[in-house]
Amino acid sequence: MSTFTPPEDFPHPHVSFRGEVGPDWLDANEHMNVSWYDRVFDEAEMRFFVEFGIEENSIRETGLTFFRLEKLVGYERENMSGDAIEVRSRVIWTDFRRVHHFHEMWNLTRQYRAAHVDAVSIHVDLRTRKSVEMTSPQARAVIARCVAAHAGEPPVAGILHRIEGRRPVR
After folding, report:
1. Which tens digit of pLDDT belongs to each residue from 125-139?
2. Are 137 and 101 in contact (CB under 8 A)?
3. Closest listed residue to residue 52, CA positions, set 167, 163, 141, 165
4. CA-to-CA distance for 88 and 10, rounded, in angstroms?
5. pLDDT tens digits for 2-39?
6. Which of 161, 164, 169, 166 is nearest to 145 (CA)?
7. pTM for the complete prediction?
8. Pairing of strands 64-75, 84-94
9. Residue 164 gets which letter from DSSP?
10. How many C-beta atoms lie closer than 10 Å to residue 137's C-beta?
11. β-sheet bridge partners, residue 71
């Protein structure tokens, strides 16, 4: 059985990853390789979705999960070996079938935004392999609280209009 306990509110911003750039993360240019940006963002996204009760146990129990429909990455600045980094995540909108989420990678050592990911994920029933609306009152309440908490945040640079389909939370 899932041990999911929904948070009462979401921090501003929600920190979904903290770490340090390891020497094995570097490429021939002696900066963080793009594959590591993707790994860090994937880890951050996974941790963020755990906040909505989407984790391995719940997926096995319910057969419900999220698939990513679209992911746009913007690489802005370098991360070097030993730099402390964190990813801050937010939900831009949801219609309880799709979730538009945005993640920013911040270099804490050098005090700048190093990269961002703009993504849309869709809620899927693994038994039918079709998209379905989230029906769990608990999950809907959690994601609605997240949207409300993040709606008060200043707008972020990097959200592309072609996937910025802001939909009201119902």
Report:
1. 999 999 999 988 888
2. no
3. 141
4. 12
5. 343 444 554 557 899 999 999 999 999 999 999 999 99
6. 169
7. 0.85
8. unpaired
9. -
10. 8
11. 119
